[in-house]
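Lab notebook, design round three. We kept the backbone fixed and only want residue identities now. Task for the bench partner: fill in a sequence for the structure below.
Input structure tokens:
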């Protein structure tokens, strides 16, 4: 199970890093900027989680293998830039895939660190959305979590809560974990397709 969690973590880093490199390509950053932005989004959420957990050196720095996916992502986007520019929704797709995986793995890491189920779900949410917020802020873009179109934090929180609940009930395994990640991804993409929104902060009052 440990290897599966690591694989999911690294895959999530890669998906998020691709979204960062794609945004860098859209903004015409150089290859260094692409690598840095991909690293920020790929590792940012996990670093925030580990700092909150107080586990010492974040695993992104303690395990050099976590630095490989951002490098691969930057190289892939560099060589296939002409192709990816034709698909404007690729950034959102990779972002959703990374968020879905991190909602699960971030919660599992928090549970393994001894956090209670509720706190673990919250930290799973932080892991899932933190990197994307960092990416968009660094690139001077409106963070996905604050955009009106589509649901972002809600699918991530649902995935983290389900992971925490199933782990507490001793029903979590590789199959249920994959199902949760798929559910989060599909909910995110469907919400974008049909423009679902969370209720506005000011209610429906007329101006």
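Proposed sequence:
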């Amino acid at each position: 199970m440990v290897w599966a969690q690591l694989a999911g973590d690294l895959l999530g880093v890669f998906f998020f890093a691709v979204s960062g490199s794609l945004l860098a390509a859209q903004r015409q950053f150089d290859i260094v900027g692409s690598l840095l932005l991909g690293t920020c989004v790929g590792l940012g959420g996990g670093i925030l989680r580990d700092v909150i957990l107080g586990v010492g050196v974040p695993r992104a720095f303690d395990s050099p293998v976590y630095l490989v996916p951002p490098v691969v992502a930057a190289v892939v986007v560099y060589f296939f830039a002409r192709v990816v520019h034709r698909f404007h929704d690729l950034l959102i797709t990779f972002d959703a895939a990374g968020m879905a995986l991190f909602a699960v793995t971030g919660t599992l890491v928090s549970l393994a660190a001894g956090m209670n189920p509720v706190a673990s779900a919250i930290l799973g949410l932080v892991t899932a959305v933190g990197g994307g917020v960092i990416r968009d802020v660094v690139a001077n873009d409106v963070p996905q979590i604050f955009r009106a179109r589509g649901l972002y934090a809600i699918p991530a929180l649902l995935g983290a809560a389900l992971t925490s609940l199933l782990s507490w009930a001793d029903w979590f395994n590789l199959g249920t974990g994959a199902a949760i990640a798929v559910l989060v991804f599909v909910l995110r993409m469907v919400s974008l397709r049909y423009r679902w929104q969370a209720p506005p902060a000011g209610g429906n009052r007329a101006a």
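Keep this in mind before ordering anything: The mean pLDDT is 90.
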